[in-house]
Amino acid sequence: MSLDANRAAPIARVGAVDAVSLRGARFRYPGAIEDAILIDHFAVGAGEHVFVKGPSGCGKTTLLSLIAGVLVANEGVVALDGHDWATMSSAARDHVRADHVGYIFQQFNLLPYLSVLDNVLLPCRFSRTRAARAGDQGSSAAVRARDLLAQMGLGKEQAARAASTLSVGQQQRVAAARALIGQPALIIADEPTSALDEAVRESFMRVLLTACAEAGSALVFVSHDARLADRFTRHIDLRLLNRASSIREEASA
Amino acid sequence: MSELLSLAVRSAWNRRFVLSLVMSSIALSTFLLLGIERIRSDVHENFSQSVSGTDLIVGARTGSVQLLLYSVFRIGGATNNIRWSSVQAIAKSRAVAWIVPLSLGDSHRGFPVVATTGDYFDHFQYGDHQSLTMAEGKRFSGVFDAVIGSEVASRLRYKLGDHVVLSHGDGAFAANDHADKPFTVVGVLAATGTPVDRSVHISLEAMEAIHLDWVAGAPIPGTSVPADQVMQHDLTPKNVTAALIGLKSRAAVFGVQRYVSEYDGEPLMAILPGVALDELWDVVGIGEKALLAMSLLVAIVSMAGLVAVILAGLNERRRELAILRAVGAGPRQVLLLLALEGGLITASGVFLGFVLSALAVLLLGDWSASHFGIALHLHRPGQDEVILLAGLLLGGWVASLGPGYRAYRLSLADGLSPRT
Amino acid sequence: MSSRAWSLRTACTVTVALAAFTGGVVGATEAGRERAQQSPKAAASFREMKWEELVPKGWDPTKGFRARSSGIASDWDPRARALLKEFRVVLDNAPTIETLDGASVKLPGYVVPLETVSGELKEFLLVPYFGACIHTPPPPANQVVFVRMDKAAAGFHTMDTVWVSGILHASRQETFAGNSGYLIDASAVERYVGEPRY
Known about the structure:
The complex is a heterotrimer.
Chain A: H1 2-7, E1 20-27, E2 37-44, E3 49-53, H2 60-67, E4 75-80, E5 83-84, H3 90-100, E6 101-104, H4 116-126, H5 128-135, H6 141-151, H7 156-160, H8 168-180, E7 186-190, H9 198-215, E8 218-223, E9 234-237, H10 238-241, H11 243-252
Parallel strand pairs in A: 3-8, 3-9, 6-7, 7-8
Antiparallel strand pairs in A: 1-2, 1-4, 4-5
Helix pairs in contact in A: 4-5, 4-6, 4-8, 5-6, 6-8, 8-9
Chain B: H1 2-14, H2 16-50, E1 56-60, H3 64-72, E2 82-83, H4 84-92, E3 96-108, E4 111-116, H5 119-123, E5 125-126, E6 130-131, E7 134-137, E8 145-148, H6 150-156, E9 163-164, E10 167-168, E11 183-189, E12 200-203, H7 204-210, E13 214-215, E14 218-219, E15 239-240, E16 242-247, H8 253-261, E17 268-271, H9 273-314, H10 318-326, H11 331-372, H12 383-414
Parallel strand pairs in B: 4-12, 8-11
Antiparallel strand pairs in B: 1-16, 1-17, 2-15, 3-4, 3-10, 3-16, 5-6, 7-11, 8-12, 9-11, 13-14
Chain C: H1 2-35, E1 47-48, H2 65-69, H3 78-92, E2 104-117, E3 120-127, E4 145-153, E5 161-169, E6 173-174, E7 179-180, E8 182-191
Parallel strand pairs in C: 1-2, 4-8
Antiparallel strand pairs in C: 2-3, 2-5, 3-4, 5-8, 6-7
């Protein structure tokens, strides 16, 4: 396992901008009485893998939405790969998100009516930058997609099948491949293993971390399962990071 | 955009069962709208073609539309005839160039019989001032000669020399056949696309001959005259149903019309065919507008169905929308996706409806021509039809913006974590 | 997938509903047509008659008129009008065949409605040719039959062709549409379907 940890050591991009950077960030939902997010400082370096622990209710979803630029902070700076979300129009935010973020849900990641390969290529439909990045080094995006799938343990035959015909474990791997295509600056994984059983979970974690390291993408891995934390060198407890949740706890105490 | 389009197609295909029902309803409403428009324009064209070159039509004082319908289109019946003496008097008028009397009331196997004079073949015109021509044979000369229209010849497979028996009225009873006085087909007219094709033409004398046993308007049984004896009787007509008039100068038309309506021999009226036709369209127009309104309603209902189906399915598609957001689609693109989907379904429906209506014309055109005398033509969509189709497409696309906007709001609200 | 099952169920329901509706419409139409054809009681016992059989042999109402009208050039000469009036009276009083009284007959003809009860025929004149009494003057009385229904018949209109079966009486009626020389108490009125002549 230690060997794996070494191999999974992140390749920091020298002189690269932080993948994620929050400074004095505050967010409150419209009409809410209290802040949902109050974070003084949080940064994820380029290519860094971070395990974020926290039960639901402490602002996990909100934080991820802020990082991905789906929500915009009321105060402070939230930046992705150097782009400050607050300075961009919503159309620009959509563009930046498409170019630089890969997302993995807990389940139901794939469009059932597309093939596995087409699912992996989806981000390239919406971001020319990613398509270009996926297609450079002399091969087309489709070839790169097949390579990624192969890395995930899925062969040519499976690539052609409809996404709905795969098992849950296989679907999550495809989701990982899709998030990774075009080497985005940041991968957000929101409880990606919670729907998988033990045996499958191990292999999934292995391929995910390897592939992220190879691609040089930063990874923000959110989970309530503490056992997975061992694979990560950096751990964040959201209850400690987000002052808003502690304020709320104090208030209700 | 093409990326979104292919995505929209695949997504719609995934839900093709329900969407095909919606598409069928749009196809049906398109079919209805196009069909009504085509029938309307073909009927108008057919009717206008049927009377050309006739300045006035004289008949008993009924309604002008009624007179037009029975004298030119052989639809409906005359309630009164006009006297032969009146026809002769009008013919003597200085302004009149020609007069063609018509006598109606008999039929042959469902086709109307028209008794007239030889002037009919010289002066009757249709379409763009086209005269009648013989496809085969010649005009009637003997008493029991008949000249048939092209439709009669082809439908009943008549050749020159065939015998035909005429019946009084609608010919429902064999007892009303003029069986003892069969006619011989001596001529077949070339096709005109007008009610002439469906008519059997005989001379006025022939009409008298077969009604020699009619006294004071009723047939007296046992008084009929055998065919070989008819020539011994005076076969001058006593009255006719109507008369077509051509004037030496069109400027005289209102003067002659007034003369006819003031004729003191009997109550007569003279109509201008064009004016009467317009009156007919006024009357029919109410029905046409109602039909059109109904079809538009059907179209609106089917669009509403489209919107309802897509809206109802949105909830189930929140996952799909979240995935799209996650791979980089913005809310605007989600809206565009749904609008594209709705536009696609509408376009398929409209196209299907268009094809169906063209097929219907192909298949039913002949049947309609023989049963109603209305020939339906396949032609390139006219301006009205293009407007209709464009309206339908636009309507469907605009309607889909509704669910599109809802999807936009949903995806904004849900962000990356849909509430499913 | 549940959405697929739902779509399937909806489609089946819609198809069944459409079929039921169509069936209902067709059935109602057929029922309407059925009502217009009341099945005759013991059809075999009604003798099919021809209109000529209602005229006494040798009756010629024009006797005497042709000679008197030969000198008159036009039908609208006042002398002609007087003659026509006389002729009309002769026709209206045309003789009937008394021995036919009480016969069970079946006669085909055209309908001239006299009395209808909520759109259903109660009394009508039966005439031998199209347009009689409506477009042209009434036929001679021995060619006009007054028909009486004890149960009104639905679905018949002016100038429809029908078979009337019933008991014939040589009794006269004067109606607003014309004078009839015969009367039939009809037990059945059916839509006329003749033998194919072509």
